[in-house]
Amino acid sequence: MARGGSLRVLSHILNGILVVLSLAIGAVSIWFFCQVRELTALRNSNHYLLDYNLYWPQAVPWIFLVIGVVVLCATACGFLGAGGGNRSLLTVHVVCLSIVTLLLITAAVLALVFADNKSTDDFVKDTVWDVYFQAKNDPEVALRFGDVERKLHCCGADSPRDYKNWKSEFPMSCCDVYYRGFLDPYNVECEFTNKLANERYGCSAVAAQYARITIKALAGGAVVTALVALGAVAAAVALSKALARKPEVMVAHYESESKKVLL
Q1: N or C: which end of the chain has fewer CB within 10 A?
Q2: Structural contact between residues 59 and 98, judged by C-beta atoms closer than 8 angstroms
C-alpha cells in the first residue's frame, strides 16, 4: 500500500510537470507564430501570390503547439488513471506518452536540423527586406516597421545606413529605447550622427537571430519534456504493476483467513 501511494504521488508530480512544460511550449509557440505573422503581414502580398511554400519559421510554431496539446491529453489520462487506480487508463497513458516522447524527440531533431539553419535566416531576411521596401511608400507599413525596430532595438533592413539614401535623418524608432519615443518624442534627436542608431544592427540580422534562439528554446523544451515523459511512463508502469499485485495479496489474505476458520 505504501509503495502504491508513493507511486501515485510521483505520477501526479511528473504529470504536473508535464502540464507546466506543455503549456510553456504552447505559449512560446503561439508567441512565435504571432511574431512571424506580424512581420509577414507587412510584406507586399503581390510578391507572394504564387508562393505556396510553407517555411520552417511558419511551420515550427504549429508543430510544437500540436505536440503540446497532445501532451496535455496524455497527462489527463495519467491523472485519472493514477488517482482512481484504473489500470486501463494507465495503459492508455503509457501508450500515449510513449508516442508523445517519440514526437517530441522528432520535433526537436527537425527543429535543430532543418529549422535552425540558413533557410530560416534567408526567410526572415527576405521578409524584412520586403517590409523595408514597402515602408518607403506606405506610411502605415513604415509606422509598423518602426514598432519592429523599437521592439528588436534594430535599425534599417541590413544596417542603419539603409536610410541614408532616401531620408534626411533616421526614423525616431532607430534612436528610441523601447517606448521612450512615445513618452517624450521631442527630446529625442535622431540625426545620422546619432551614436545609438549607428551602433544598432539591421533588423534582418536581429530578427533572424531571435528566430534561431526561439527555435532552439522550443527544441530544448521538447527534449526536457521528453525526459520527464519517460519518467512518467516508468512511474505509470510501476504503479500499474503495483495495482495488479494488490488483488493477489488480497486473495492470499482471504485464503489464509479461511484456513484459520476451518482449523
Answers
A1: C
A2: no
